[in-house]
Amino acid sequence: MEPLSFFVVFSIAVLVRCSDVKHENVDWRIGQNFSSILLSRRRAVEQMDGDARNDPITFNTNLMGYPDRPGWLRYIQRTPYSDGVLYGSPTADLVGKPIIIEITAYNRRTFETARHNLVINVMFSEEFPLKFQAEFFIKNMNVEEMLASQVLGDFLGAVKNVWQPDRLNAINITSALDRGGRVPLPINDLKEGVYVMVGADVAFSSCLKEVETPQNQQLCSQEMEPVISCDKKFRAMFYIDWCKISLVDITKLVSVGKERPDPGSGVLPDIGEYSPPSESLKSRDYFSDFLITLAVPSAVALILFIILGYVMCCRREGVIQLVHHSSIQKSTKELRNMSKNREIAWPLSTLPVFHPVSGEIVPPLHPDSYKTTSMPLMQTQTNLQHQTQMSQQQTAGKWYS
After folding, report:
1. pTM of full prediction above 0.70
2. Which residues of 199-210 are buried (b: 16+ CB within 10 A; e: fewer)?
3. Alpha-carbon distance 89 to 152, whole Å?
4. Of the candidates 28, 32, 55, which has an alpha carbon nearest to the alpha carbon of residue 44?
5. SS (H, E, C) 91-113
6. What is the pLDDT of residues 126-162, one digit of tens each?
7. 395 φ/ψ angles, rounded to the nearest 5 degrees
């Protein structure tokens, strides 16, 4: 449904004890400027005979007979030591229907409560809806600050100087958090930001249309601030994010409403009496279907299991490789044992070598008993010294011819 003009009904909600619930009627006409509904913490404490300075007070608001507020009605209270604010934009189908909001105040120190019923009557105005609507995003304001009548009036005055309309009204005010914004860091007095939609009866001014120029659109795509000639008229109090401004001409909007189908009377048509099937139906034998469903897959699985077992147990190449490797080891050991018992010429790699320092011939070291036949091609310094000592004790002709 199309939202109606933002209701701003300036009313201090006087809260009384639960035993004496008070009803208060609030009327406003759609399309006119109003203030917000303020839930006064001080008045609530006075009704509960508490300490107005030190008692923490919280408010709970709900539609009578329901656990929560209507979807179009929002409530905010920063701390238990601040006032609460009700704000929102009712829809057109609420015109003429009384809306009863139950407001309950809780004293968190004494646990006392006070209750007040607020009756809201939405009335239609012939001036609504305004044809041209613009939505501004103000970066340096929170929603409760913007709902103050003086601040909202200053903003509408700045917009009126830029737009120059005959009639200018606030249509909606929404916190940036309700639009998916993030909570700002608690540094440098950062604000959440607030969206303010205003409506007028004349076309948009040239200053507002500067946002739609290709140059400014390119700057916005690069996350840079566009150049707007009338920004200085807002800069004194309001920091406008011109990349998030929205200009809507409702006269050019195309209606996309779909026709609802006829729900009908909800009674099924008369198609006669129900005729159940006769008892003479032949029974069906499902045994063959059971065999096909269970026996065939089982037989296939069994065949595959037999083939896999044969390959794994009877055709293993790893067993042949192990037997072959074992026979090679046995042959190698036998050859080594046989080589110990015969005298043959030593390989060239085991012939005498020269000492790297003295230049003398150094005989290779051949132990009488060894387990391996591998001989080092290079001698370490320790082996060379040991071999030098041995060469001094033996004759040189004994080692070569």
Report:
1. no
2. bbeeebbebbeb
3. 16
4. 55
5. EHHHCCCEEEEEEEEEECCCCCE
6. 666 788 899 999 998 888 888 888 888 899 999 999 9
7. -80, 150
